From TrEMBL:
<keyword id="KW-0830">Ubiquinone</keyword>
<dbReference type="GO" id="GO:0032981">
    <property type="term" value="P:mitochondrial respiratory chain complex I assembly"/>
</dbReference>
<dbReference type="InterPro" id="IPR009622">
    <property type="entry name" value="NDUFAF4"/>
</dbReference>
<protein>
    <submittedName>
        <fullName>NADH dehydrogenase [ubiquinone] 1 alpha subcomplex assembly factor 4 family-containing protein</fullName>
    </submittedName>
</protein>
<dbReference type="GO" id="GO:0005739">
    <property type="term" value="C:mitochondrion"/>
</dbReference>
<dbReference type="Pfam" id="PF06784">
    <property type="entry name" value="UPF0240"/>
</dbReference>
Length: 255
């Protein structure tokens, strides 16, 4: 059997290829003579097509040759060109190399390219403009009301800023609401841990020698002499030890 397969396989292949080429040539001759070959359809499309073709008017329109349509199609002129090299590798991203290359370029000051104003989308601003607006508004708040001249200058510079004139006021207010600078450290009020511990003892009904209104009076920063500050620190340590002893006694009682 293996011998016959080896013998007849090449013969059958040559016959099949010959018949296939003959069929292709025959079909090509029909196409050149004007035979219409519709594209293959899916089963659902085939059913819809059969239902449509039952209408004689639609069938005539499909089979009829429209000269105007042929003329319009012949007007199309398609030319093939080389592909434009527009890959992402050509774009410059905020890397060390671009930082060095554009070190003294103002448009690359924040390590990425800032587009010109005429090419930006509406209601968009750059990081530089956002920082300038936030800085100016923060300065406006920090200025005292008595300093009328400086306050007027800051308000004028803010109103004449290009981003303020270009961006909606509502969006600028939202930006100020969520990205405004925090309070300065010298204006913050910090609570001491000892005072919090004392308040916790009061809530837990623990006795203490110092009254509630004396909180904050033991701050060493309010004392002028160095000796007084050292004494205040010693007193604070003693108070902490007393609190720890009270906690230990309560734990023993509970145990």
């Amino acid at each position: 059997m293996g011998f016959f397969k080896k013998l007849f396989n090449p013969i059958s292949k040559t016959i099949e290829s010959g018949t296939f080429q003959e069929r292709v040539a025959f079909k090509f001759d029909k196409i050149t003579k004007g035979e219409k070959i519709p594209a293959p359809k899916y089963e659902t499309e085939q059913k819809a097509y059969e239902n449509i073709m039952k209408d004689e008017k639609i069938k005539k329109e499909i089979e009829q040759k429209h000269e105007t349509l042929v003329e319009n199609m012949n007007k199309f002129n398609i030319k093939s060109t080389e592909v434009i090299n527009d890959t992402k590798s050509d774009k410059q991203y905020p890397t060390r190399e671009t930082e060095i290359a554009h070190k003294n370029d103002p448009s690359w000051e924040y390590f990425f390219y800032e587009p010109p104003k005429d090419k930006m989308l509406p209601n968009r601003l750059t990081l530089r403009e956002a920082l300038e607006i936030l800085r100016t508004k923060h300065e406006e708040i920090q200025i005292k009301p008595e300093n009328h001249e400086r306050l007027a200058e800051v308000k004028k510079s803010l109103s004449e800023h290009s981003a303020v004139q270009r961006i909606d006021e509502e969006k600028l207010n939202q930006m100020w609401k969520y990205f405004r600078p925090f309070a300065r450290s010298d204006q913050e009020r910090v609570t001491r841990k000892e005072d919090l511990a004392y308040l916790q003892n009061l809530l837990n009904r623990k006795e203490h020698e110092i009254g509630f209104l004396d909180i904050g009076k033991r701050d060493p920063k309010t004392l002028q002499s160095l000796e007084a500050r050292e004494k205040a620190k010693i007193l604070e340590l003693e108070e902490i030890k007393k609190l720890e002893e009270i906690d230990n006694k309560l734990k023993k009682k509970l145990d």
